[in-house]
UniProtKB/TrEMBL annotation:
Protein's recorded name: Mitochondrial carrier protein
Pfam family, any one: Mito_carr
Organism: Rotaria socialis
Parts of the chain that traverse the membrane: 111-129, 141-160
SUPFAM superfamilies in alphabetical order: Mitochondrial carrier
Length: 231
């Protein structure tokens, strides 16, 4: 439990930090276009951290299940812990194809995900805040807005997440690359393979994202106010 939570904290910190810094490159940083570009930039950078973290999480969760369900054909209990998983992945397939396995699909997922995430929040604020500003939104509306933002972002990127997760969990050398896996999956299971599990993902995203952006917004306003008072 500690490892996934720590990974999520790092990823969220990277995303919001890079997006906030990137906004300084625009004269008007709060347009939908600016927010999409800065969000995409944040998604791109954090993918290089997120991909190996999710590789470890996926493989530790799935080991032992693959043989039972004839799904991923992983050997039973390959890895002792997250560090052992990273080490064995590197030994068996190197850095690019082992540790960073699934990076291209993580990029394909997270660039559009965050390109949609920040504009979706801005859209909600403009239309559901009394005067179109975050600071004037009530707590319950902020939570609704966070949930709405998460649903929009996952709706845009979910098919890529399906491919990434299943490819990372697949046994070594089973496919030439992630695109080979995607094509074979489509031929065997049809387009439905790319939407399988979307409802549970959405239900999970609602409580998670309901708090993510509102908490970030609250902390940012708090620290900005503190810094202004100390100047």
């Amino acid at each position: 439990m500690a490892s996934p939570m720590f990974g999520v904290a790092i990823i969220n910190g990277i995303v919001f930090s890079i997006q906030n810094v990137s906004k300084g490159l625009f004269d008007n940083p709060d347009t939908y276009f600016s927010l999409a570009v800065t969000g995409a930039s944040a998604g791109c950078v954090q993918s290089f951290i997120c991909s190996p973290i999710e590789l470890v999480k996926t493989r530790l969760q799935m080991q032992g299940i693959g043989q039972q369900r004839k799904l991923f054909a992983l050997s039973t209990h390959l890895y002792k812990d997250p560090i052992d998983c990273i080490k064995e992945s590197y030994i068996r397939q190197g850095f690019q194809y082992g540790v960073m396995r699934g990076l291209s699909m993580t990029l394909a997922r997270d660039i559009p995900l965050f390109a949609a995430y920040f504009p979706a929040w801005q859209f909600f604020v403009l239309y559901f805040s009394p005067i179109g500003k975050e600071a004037d939104m009530s707590m319950h509306m902020s939570l609704v807005g966070g949930a709405f933002t998460g649903i929009v972002a996952w709706a845009v990127s979910y098919p890529f997440d399906v491919i990434k997760s299943r490819y990372q969990a697949a046994r070594d050398h089973a496919y030439k690359n992630v695109w080979d896996y995607a094509v074979r999956s489509f031929r065997m299971e049809g387009w439905q393979v790319f939407t399988r599990g979307f409802l549970p993902c959405t239900l999970r995203a609602i409580p998670t994202n309901a708090f993510t952006y509102p908490v970030y917004s609250f902390l940012k306003q708090t620290f900005d106010t503190t810094l202004d008072d100390n100047v």
